[in-house]
Amino acid sequence: MAALAAFMLAGGAQAAEHEVLMLNKGEKGAMVFVPDLVKAAPGDTIRFVPTDKSHNAEAIKGMLPEGAELFKSKINEEFTVKLTAQGVYGIKCTPHYGMGMVALILVGDPVNLEEAKAVTHPGRAKKVFADLLATVPVD
Q1: Could you tell me if 74 and 122 are in contact, meaning their C-beta atoms sit under 8 angstroms apart?
Q2: Helices H, strands E: what count in the chain?
Q3: 67, 68, 107: which is closest to 88 by C-alpha?
């Protein structure tokens, strides 16, 4: 019985995988990540799926928590990243960044929220990030 209880508790602690689609068109318009806001726990993985062609996922310099490494996927290729550092992660599709194709991932506590808010963005990405960052809970 104790072994079963330990197994059940261990199962609850397993990391989750979150799928993010990269689309030419979604409910929020053209060139979008769906969802564009992901709440994850440290150790979870994010799987970026290029449902439509000409997309990738790239971490934005200045929008990563301390200890997190920049990453960039290849165009048209599925990409998975494990996020262990707590904080806010800004993500862009390199070719469509100025069109507002961005996403925000919150891993645990938003320890780098102010730094992330200070990053400047081109075109429509500026408004999309402002809206996403406004939804992040602050203690």
Answers
A1: no
A2: 3, 8
A3: 107
Residue identified by tokens 């920049």 is: 70
Burial of 59 (0-12, 13-18, 19+ CB in 10 A): buried
Looking at the DSSP bridge assignments, the partners of residue 48 are 20, 79
Dist CA 121 CA 7 (whole Å): 46
Residue 28 region, left (φ>0) first, then alpha (ψ -120 to 50), else beta?
A: alpha
Quote the pTM value: 0.89
* 28-78 residue pLDDT tens: 999 999 999 999 999 999 999 999 999 999 999 999 999 999 999 999 999
Sole residue written with tokens 């990391």: 15
Whether the CB-CB separation of 106 and 40 falls below 8 Å is answered with yes
* DSSP state letter for 64: S
CA 91 to chain centroid: 6
User: How many residues are recorded in the chain?
Assistant: 139
**Alpha-carbon torsion angle 36, 37, 41, 46, nearest 10:** 0
